[in-house]
Structures are given as C-alpha cells and as structure tokens.
Input
Amino acid sequence: MILAIAIVVALLVRCLTTSRYASTQDPLNNQNIEDLAPGSFGLPLVGETIALAWDNHKFYRDRLQKYGSVFKTHLFGKPVIAFIGPEAFTFFLDQKYFTREQANPQPIQELLDWESLPLLDGERHRDRKNLILQAFTPQAFDKYIPLIEDVATYYLRQWEQLGSFAWIPEYRKLSASLTNALFTGGVPGPTSEVVGEIIETFVKGFTSVPINLRWNGYGKALQSRDKLLALIDKAIVQHRQQPQQDMLGILLNTRREDGSSLTDEQLRREVLHLFFAAYGGIYISLTFLSMTLAQHPEMMMLAREEVNTHVPHGSLNMERLKDLVYLKKIAYEIRRFYPINAATFFAKVTQECEFQNYRIPKGWGAVGGIHTTMHLPQVFPEPEQFKPCRFAPEQFAALPQNSYVPHGGGAPDSHRCPGEDLITVLIKVIAVHLLRKYNWELPPQNLELNCNLFPIPQDGLKVNFGLNKELLERKAV
Output
C-alpha cells in the first residue's frame, strides 16, 4: 500500500505541474453538478487514484456495481468519466467528442516515446494505423507461423526435459523469444531471453514511482526503453541489408497509395509499442490457455480431438488453422473471461456533450472499461462461467456492437489493437503443438490471480508436464 501511495503522490506532482495533462478546471466548481454522472471525486488532490493503483480491475468492478455503466471519478489530478457496456463504450469511441492526443499522464507518454499509436488520434492516427495494419493480414500471418512454430518447438523440448516447473516464467521466455523473432529477427534462446528481461524492466515502469533516477524502477524503465530503441534501430539496418520475412521486414515495406512509407523514427516508436503490447499479451494469453485446459478436462478432450482430426501432424498455415473452430472459441473466451485488460488508454473530452442525460464537461479525461464491459450478464449470461460455446458464429454475430472488446472496440483503423487476430492465431498454433504430443496437470497450488496491472496466478502456474505416450503410440499405429 505504501508503494501505491508513493506512486500516486509522485505521479500527481508530475501531472499537476505538466500542462499536457493537468486540468485547468476544478471539477468541484462545475455549475449544475447535479447533472453530472454519479460517482465520487474522492479525496482532495489525490482523488481515487490510490484505489486504481492498488487494484485497477477491482476499481472498475466496484464502481460499476455502485454507480452503473457511466460514472465520474478523479484520477491522476484530473476529473474522469468512465464508460462501461456496449452502448457507453460505443459513445466513448466517437472522435467527435474524444481524443487520445495529449490525454494520458506524462510518464505513460514518456515511456512510449511520445508519439506511438495509443497516443495519437485523428488523421495522423488513421494514416499510421493503416500502414501498421498491413503487417497484420492473413498473408502476413502465414509468414509468421513458421517463426511461432520454431519458437514453440524450442521451448516444448525444454519443458519435456524439465517435467515439473512453473509455467509463467517459461512462457515469459517463450514470449521474449517470439517478440524478438518477430520484431528484430532474433532466434529463440538465451539472447532473446535477455531481451525479455529488458522488456520486463520496461513494463514495470508503468507502475513505478514516475521520477527519473538511474537506480529506481522508473529510471531503469526509461533506460530499458532506450535499449529497446537501440535494438530496433540495429534491426532496421540489418533488415535493409538482408530482408527477412518477419513483422519488421513487412513493416519496412508497407506503403501508402502514393508510395510513401513510415519514417524510421515512426517505425522505431511503433515497434517499441508492439514490444510492450505483444510481450505481455503473449505470455498471459498462453498462461490462461494452459490453465483453462488443465482445469477443464472435457475442453481439453474436445480440443485434442479437433487437433487430431484436422491437423494431426505437419506444419501449420492459415488455411489449416481455419478448421480449428473450437480452439477459436476458446481463444475468444479466454480474453473475455480473464481480467487481462481493465481499461483503455485515457482519452480527453474535446467538447461538452451528453450521454444518458449526463453532462460531460469539456477537458475531462475519459476511459472505457474493457473487462467490465465483457462481464455484463445482460450481454454475456453467466459471465463468471467459462463457456466457449458463447462464441459460436451465430451467437457472436448477434452480440451488440462493442460488447466484445478485449483489444478495444471500433473499426480496425480506430484504437482497436492491431494484434487481435494474431493472438488468436498464436493461441491456436501453441495449442496444436501442446495437444499433439503432451499432457499436463496442475499440482495443488494457489491459482488466485494477483493484483498486478495484468493479473496472473500467484504461484506461477506450477505444472507437471510430459509426453502423452498413449496418444503417440496410437498415432504411430
């Protein structure tokens, strides 16, 4: 708790002395405050920032239950309006009223090097996003799948030898190797795992006291950011000298209609953002995949049957993965069920507007609740039950707009994460390689999720892992 308070105090000092984020309007002096959304501004100056820093998922859950789908709060020195649920989330995405430009606390902007996609809006954002999306097509995925399979094979062989281990540290190694392979052309193993340690230090900066000292968490995060940028710069030079079929190679060749491309400065910032987003997204998604299948033997059986029916052996590609319908449902439900992302990046209200008869003042911050939006019982019945069947095509098509928003909602060229479909592909590929040959069981342990920014099982997901000899013998016959 002391750390959370220290983070809040330091961040408030920076936010309140920086015109980029500080509000010039005292929320308590608004005229007609009775027409504002319900909620609380919390303590003077601090607002409700301590509660958010302590457990960001609980923060949104508790206020949804108390105030409903739209509520006001006060975070990082600024009044904020939060939107939860399909209708509210859709309104929050309207660029007529909201912008991401200069909307996030300065430390977040500093860590992401100021001008990457999450921090842009309008035409600048759309232009850059459309270039980035060229690296997230099915044709591009076909080039990445061999990289994913190589990395998976490398670590599966190690796990087979280990037998019993904690899976989260191992999945972090796998994630580091895969992100390094995709974004710099690196190979799996110790060198890439060192890059993973750099990414870990960088990511910790987002929840560190935001004062730049060489020895503290935030200072080390900025140093790690610069190490990643230097690694990216080196990879750009190498890829120009020797083109490769990885994501960086494709991004170097993306073009607008007039033939122009991303500048090197833009490219390095976007690859830095992708390192941040992909590293956690990969190991957390795979952690929950493995945990879910172990906890639900009937789901593991159905998934294994699907793999053995459609892709029992051989290399994978997008065409072969299309038949894995049940695994796709599992991949979707993992991101709905588990508390991975609590909320979007912050936005800023550009003009006074109204939603559900509540006045939303110009200059306020705004945020969309992600996990809470996907746990509304009126949209997803029995939301606390893990049910892949809810993503049968006909049911998925009938969902209200912006009700399934694990990577943000809206159109592809909006603030929806470009990696959404790639994570589905990744889950399928890793699941295939696990289910073709291996069994795993979870020994007694604490599987409760911690209060991290991205919660994970507290005991590291201990596992007993080995070859499925009976299955392999049947395949040999």
